[in-house]
Design brief:
heterodimer; A: 488 residues; mainly alpha; two-stranded antiparallel sheet; 2% strand; globular; B: 582 residues; 24 helices
Amino acid sequence: MSIASLTLLIGVLLGASPLVYLLGRLAVRLGWGMWLARGLALLAALAAWAPFVALWQQFAPTGTRSLFFLGNLWMQVDALSLLLAGMTLTLGTLVILFSGAYMAGETGEEKYYAMLLAMMGLIIGLGSAGDLFNLWVWFEAMAVSSYLLVAFYREQPASLEAGMKYLTQSAVGSVLALLGIAVVLGQTGSLDLDQVLAVARTAENQMPLLAAGALFLVGFGVKAALVPLHTWLPDAHSQAPSGISAMLSGVVIQAGLVAMLRALAALAGQAVTWGALLLFFGALNMLLGNLLALRQTQVKRMLAFSSLSHMGYILLGFGAAWWSGSAAGAQGAMFHLFTHMLMKGLAFLSVGALMFALFHHAVQQRPLVGDDLNGAAARYPMAALALSVSLLALAGLPPLAGFMSKWQIFVAGFQTGDGMVMGLVVFAAFNSVLSLGYYAPLVNRLYRRTPSVAVGAGGGIPWTMQVPLVILTLAVFVLGLFPAIFSG
Amino acid sequence: MAAWLSLSLILIPWLGALLVWRTGDAAPTRQHALAVAFSLAAGVAALVLVPLASPLVVFTLPMGAFFGELTLVSDGLSTVLAAIACMVGALAVIFSVDYMRGETQLGRYYTFVLLFIGAMCGLVLSGSLLFLFFFWEITALCSYALISFYNDDPRAVAGGVKALIITQVGGIGLLAGALAVFASTGSYQIADLLAKAPQIAPGLMSVVAFGFLAAAAAKSAQFPFHTWLPDAMEAPTPVSALIHAATMVNAGVYLLARFYPAFAPIPGWTFAVMLVGLASALITAFMALTAMDLKRALAYSTVSQLGYMVYAIGAGGVFASQFHLLSHAVFKALLFLAAGAVIHGVGTRDMRQMGGLGARMPLVRVVFVIGALALAGLPFFNGFWSKELILEEGLKHTPWWAYGGMLLGAGLTAFYTLRMTWMVFFGAARSERHAHDAGMAMKVALVALAAGTLLTWLAVGGFSGLMEESLPYHQIHALGLPGLVEEILLAPATYGALGVMALGLALGWLLRGRAGVSPPALVEGLSRTSFGFDWLNGHTARGVHHLAALLQKTQTGQMNWNLFGIMAALAAVLLVLWWSAP
């Protein structure tokens, strides 16, 4: 039963969230150990895997979309919602494990886990929303949970500033998206994605629907970090706790993209138009993300800009699919969504582990800059290897996962036979080379002989933080060597 | 049998890499031993594989819808190149036992060397374009990691990034070509491409052909991408010998040779290949004339000799190019390793501080002279036969001015070779530096390569026979040893070429006293900037940074502007939609 599995999947996460909070507050008040709250959070994330696997097994053999009511909510399960759920669970579980040591002793630690679980549940709900209004509600609720996580270090001005920017700009985006929904409702008299699609195809005056599409593109595009709507992202990614940076970069902005694609798909009468716009924003994202990453000295900011460029590759895949009407581009983009989650999650978590070790504490006294990482490999071989693997995979070097997913997008681009798309693929390839200009020197730093002062004075990395790194590193290798695992 | 051997050429070195890495730097003796054992095992496997060459696919592994099949084909072209990679690889590793003794981070060094040997074998054995590209990229990564091995030295870091970026920019040609082939034929298999080439649209085919040429030129440091190889000389010398003289830089030549039957009918392609070879051979031979750094002089000479191979392909002499590739791999590895022994002994790369070293390292002098004579193309070393074969092909199939240019290049080669050898080993010592002789492991590697320099040309019959049998599209005719001797020794052109070389040697002898004198400003400037192309590289890199700095100014971090960005984007999208609506 799809409906039971999906309800259970979302319910476990959303239900555990207040319990974790309560347990955490009791721990603070009564002096119990915080490990209870941490343990429950991890347990909930692990428990959510059972309904997810059940859902997967129901979907995989047929591959058909299933639609059903949850109370009076329209829900749907298709490849995209399963992908988003899988990404959220994978990274979320590892981040909770990682955060145990990383966040230990922070004020408000219980809120962190509660919000993280809530955010995971809400993202999975967003991916499965079947009508426009509920899509927006899930989206907005997810955003609210993420604001608090971004501004988690509330004593630090930089963290608050990042949180404020993120909140304000996301709110503007949400309003625009809501406006778009209103226009669609006014024009088609429906919010159900399938009915809207049916009416939109035959609508006489397309202009209001096009305007609604523009509102969706820009409104949800703020969260998906399309250039020039991305300006909240570098601050938010670099100021949030590293586990949250990983979630933001690996799952949250992709959730924004999924929302955008769902909404635009309802207006698919103009698929070619939306395809062209996605391609255009994809090119902008790649160029600006790479060029600005080249200028960064702070490691987390550099990774943040690199997320922009990877969103560009993903947009290239989806854009090519819509522009030419072939499914291959979308498959490639979905593969890249998944591998990017692995790679960027690994990158942020390994940087987080190194920060934890170098600064003896998770709170950023100051940003981590490239020079701090000189010679880190001698003392922290696993974290340095994990960071190197993630960076090389992001750059698209074989045999790592990023190479295979980029290749699949590129193949799809050339299969369209369209000159513009093929030109964009070559442009994307140039961008990959450009990205080596900032990834490669960073990898090199890690293996220098003379360690930096920070490395010399650094502390240890606990095993709970090393395990997620090992798992993600292996995954990046395995998916690179056996890409058929994913497409199969 | 061939399947297992082909696969083992990739997996043996990679397993060795894994073991060396896991051994850890606390046990350097075991690291040396493991590296030598695994590289030698790969070398033996490669030699056993050579006589088994056939055009058949020996190994297939399906990789999924978008990735086709990973196939391995061990034909005459790939097995010989794999054997070069493994044998020179093993000798370079043996040499490293002395050269790298006492270095820190030995694990990283051997891991990447072994990773490279496996990837290079994969590159030549791959029967699929995707996996050719796959291994192509891994060799680039290993090359980068090893150039930047001494990564506390900013020059090594810069040289590594430069090599990586330039080869990757060219690599886009290979990527685009492979994608175009797959999109139009639905297959990544090289055999399919060679078979179906005449049916593929000529426009698309020329994109593929010129894309591959760009990739080959970048990988083989050919004009206009010739700027990265001299800067790659910051790598440990055994790496320069293995990757930047004997193997990876040959990958470009290999690529051209492999696809020659498909691309030769494309209008302008063979001419462009010939021009690239000619320009590379001459420009870098000129730069080698005044070089003062021993390794850079050898690097210029490598680009120049690769230019001869590329030129040969442009002239249609696929076998001649591969024959010279074999000779060059052996004698240039010898020269680099001998230079490594010198540098290790003297502690500098500057030839102005050497001189008279022969007295203290007699064996190194003997082998270096053998290598130098082969490089200069004097009879009857391996370089003589292969270079003359290339010039023969050039005389028959290229315009007179191109042939003349290559002849001039041969004269320049003789000149700079003599100058280099003289400055290092002969004359009076020009500095107070104390030199110590090469170690035992070094000598083993040097003697083996010197023997190869004297003997590899005897394999011409077997090599060309293998290529004739196992390359169905290349139309190569076996050339037996008597045939080769007859063709070269009876041709009048041979004696003309030898005359030019003698002239170069004579000039070198007369000017030997002035070898250490700085060249005129114009010559010095041309050499330093690689005929302006280094300047171009620098400005491109600075231009990109400048553009990035400009863009950075648009990221004010002020919320007003951020929100303006959102609204402006909305307005722009709406305008575009309104403007383009039907």
